[in-house]
Design a protein that fits this description.
Blueprint lengths: L6 E4 L9 H15 L6 H4 L5 H8 L3 H17 L8 H10 L3 E5 L4 H10 L3 H4 L2 E3 L12 H9 L7 E5 L2 H9 L3 E5 L5 H4 L5 E3 L7 H10 L1
Parallel strand pairs: 1-2, 1-4, 2-3, 4-5, 5-6
Length: 216
Amino acid sequence: MMKEIKAALFDLDGTLFDTEGQYTTLWGGIGRKYRPDIPYFAQEIKGTTLKQILDRYFPDESVREAIVKELNEYEAQMTYDFYPGALDCINDLKKHGVRCAIVTSSNISKMKQVEKQIPDFNNLFDRVLTSEDFTASKPAPDCYLLGAKVFGCKLDECVVFEDALSGLQSGMSAGIFTFGLATTNTEEAIKDHCNHVLASWQGVNYDTICEIFNTK
């Protein structure tokens, strides 16, 4: 008997949006300016919330305020472009009755910038869960467990889509079937950290997802 997918839980940056390069530029600059003692700072903080970054790496309040200001200004001028095929996949899932949610470490302030660029963004998803909705960020499983809970779904009725190692660990630790997008990391780098690797969103739809979900 075929298992039914009732909910799809999506990471945002690097999974649906081609934005990771922009964030790497921003946080790389912040790291060089304020934490030159930490090489590859941008990679170090991927997948964590702003609060966690500030609490962990920036105890000085004036520095924290400067970083928040810089981040807000930067996100206001970022471009939020869907990867080719991602939007088609979301619409196809919805057409088949699958509930769709964003599960992101970004905060509400960032999502308001997204909505300015994409006015119908919230209409694409049944729920948008941000860092304000959970206390433990990725790689903890909390955010994806919450994603299943808000839809009243069992874990084996959900699928997760992620790109970063911390997010993949979050989905897998939650016990949810996790698709890894080879968008910001190579297929080789993520293949042991998810249930199935998707090279891109091109050609991915409800039928292909269900086939993989039921044969793995």
